[in-house]
Design brief:
The protein is mainly alpha-helical and 125 residues long. It has helices spanning 9-38, 50-89, 105-110, 118-124. The chain has a domain at 9-92. It is built from 4 helices and no strands. Helix 1 runs antiparallel to helix 2 (50-89). The chain is elongated and about 55 Å long.
Length: 125
């Protein structure tokens, strides 16, 4: 029996649904982080008395910095998921970029934007 070189259209559709769901959640999370950074929610120390504002200012700055880092990471994740959708459309999704073999379904379900098989990833470490 010959080894499969790509996933079937039905399998690709399954992955497309998974990626689309993760992408929608990632975009929602990204918008939440952007709101924290821009303070558009209105639930900050500016809503409280000046005494609390002084005490909370450092924590607020730290929180916005952390939210900024998380937003940046989330944006990168969104880009990876969008690239994965392009690979699904081109029917080359799930093919390891190092070995040319199929990445296991289990790995793709856990990390749907993966471009390396477990073996190839471990060789990098």
């Amino acid at each position: 029996m010959t080894e499969k070189k790509r996933y079937t259209d039905e399998e690709l559709e399954e992955f497309k649904v998974l990626i689309t769901q993760k992408l929608a959640k990632a975009k929602k999370d990204y918008e939440t982080l952007k709101a924290v950074i821009s303070n558009s929610t209105g639930n900050d120390t500016e809503d409280t008395s000046p005494t609390f504002k002084v005490l909370e200012e450092g924590a607020s700055t730290l929180s916005k910095e952390e939210a900024g880092r998380l937003a940046q990471r989330q944006s990168k994740f969104i880009g990876h998921l969008e690239s994965a959708l392009v690979r699904v459309k081109n029917k080359n999704y799930g093919i390891c970029r190092e070995t040319g073999n199929l990445i296991s379904k289990e790995r793709l379900r856990a990390v749907p934007h993966a471009t390396l098989s477990i073996d190839a990833k471990n060789k990098q470490l």
